[in-house]
Amino acid sequence: MTHQNSPLSRSRLRFCLQATVNALLAFGLVHVLAVPWHGLWAVPTAVVVIQVSIGGSLKATAEYTIGTVVGAVYASMVAALVPHPTDLGLAIVLAVAIAPLAYAAAVSPSFRVAPVTAVLVLMISAQIGEAPIELAFNRLFEVGIGAAAAITVSLLVFPAPAQVLELEEAARVLERMARVLPAVMAGFQTKMDPMENLERQNEIREAVHAFEEVATDAKPERLVPVPAQPDPAVLARTLLRLRHDLVMIGRAASAPLSDRLAARLGPILEQISAAARDHLLASASALMCRRTAASTVLVDAALAAYMSEVASIEIEGLMQGFSIEERERVFALGFALQKTQQNFSDLARCLQEWAQNSDRTSKPFRPSSLLRRTWLSTLH
Questions:
Q1: Domains in the chain, please, with CATH?
Q2: Is residue 256 a contact partner of residue 187, using CB atoms and an 8 Å limit?
Q3: For 87-98, how does the pLDDT look when each residue is reduced to its tens digit (9 = 90+)?
Q4: Per-residue pLDDT tens for 157-199?
Q5: pTM
Q6: CA torsion, points 49, 55, 59, 65, in degrees to nearest 10?
Q7: Interior CA angle at 280 toward 271 and 199, to 5°?
Q8: Which of 20, 218, 361, 367 is the most exposed place for a label (fewest CB within 10 A)?
């Protein structure tokens, strides 16, 4: 697969088109409706709230709308109750309006735009001499137009449910793990730069975090009839545990094994690395294609060979000839690999759930029906 044809590139191009159509639609609506301020607030709102996925757009729209309503209403109340004919009076009104809204924004992201809205309503009304309540109403109206444009475009122009994007992000996590694992386990053979290992672990952490963000965006979609998917929290926990396994393996591989241990365990570790890498890649492919997981027979066999060889070294009395630190790393690796084996089984169950759900998700997505249900649920 070329970079230009990758799912990530297609997702970016799709969002580029959505954002452009979204801005033009909002711009057209404000001119058709002869909205005051000529879309000064409608078009920016449409651009701000549209996201890559449907769920992300719904979440951003809800938060932006809530913040706008709270900020506009509160600023209008403060302006009506506190006289501000002078600059000093306006400064006092701004302080009274911003302080509680800023605190609310720090408590909940739903109020992030509330202080901004309050400032705009108060400052612009003071500059043009218009009543704050009238200006607040105009802002609310334009924000509604921008939000409507964003949701409409999200649902009708190359709609991308966050529940579908979850698969792409999860597959990327598994692919990154497959790329990082051999490099981490190479530390048992050669001296590795600790900073390089840290960068690899951070790469996996960021990938898992990106998946969790997409899974969070999918929650609002459960309120509207987007085809249901298995709970992504289970898959997220499994990916996080696999990342922890990589961290433990990386700690065990902080220094090369001694020559005697490397001669006994080195070939087996290479088998484990290759088998686990191939299984992660196969799992990523299975997730994207909604297939059941690949067999873990090779991984299980390689792990069994490692445990058997470590037991043989102990029986032969050779383990006492190694340093305490090296013995601890050998046993820590065995524990980490056993945890990885268990988490591979959990991953297989997750893939099984997604595969069983493929019949429902393969049904045609009807954005027009979803659009009607979304606006009806908003009205009620």
A1: 7-159+367-379 (no CATH), 162-361 (1.20.58)
A2: yes
A3: 888 899 999 999
A4: 877 665 667 777 888 899 999 999 999 998 888 887 878 888 8
A5: 0.63
A6: 50
A7: 90
A8: 20
